[in-house]
Amino acid sequence: EKPYVCEHEGCNKAFSNASDRAKHQNRTHSNEKPYVCKIPGCTKRYTDPSSLRKHVKTVHGPEAHVTKKQRGDIHPRPPPPRDSSSHSQSRSPGRPTQGA
């Protein structure tokens, strides 16, 4: 079952979940190319990380390693919040005990 239909006019692709549809729309129907080749002197950009990996391997050689973070700084993600409670005791100091 594929209830999530691409919202781009003329495209009838359908997907089983909304995130796959969003990925398709961003990679297929958008001009945004956030995956940037980091090899000095190369200006290639791609909509899809697999396209960037293929480019680096075929143009720059397999020794030109691409990491997961070979993305442009268009939408940088903030670091995840630190959860201090996971390293503390089971009962927080200053927290009232049950029945108090």
UniProtKB/TrEMBL annotation:
SUPFAM superfamilies assigned to the protein according to its UniProt record, in alphabetical order: beta-beta-alpha zinc fingers
GO cellular component annotations of the record: nucleus
One MF annotation (Gene Ontology) recorded for this entry: RNA polymerase II transcription regulatory region sequence-specific DNA binding
InterPro entries reported in the protein's UniProt record: GLI-like, Znf_C2H2_sf, Znf_C2H2_type
The C2H2-type domain, residue ranges: 4-34, 35-65
Family: Belongs to the GLI C2H2-type zinc-finger protein family.
UniProt name for this protein: Transcriptional activator GLI3
Native species: Macaca mulatta (Rhesus macaque)
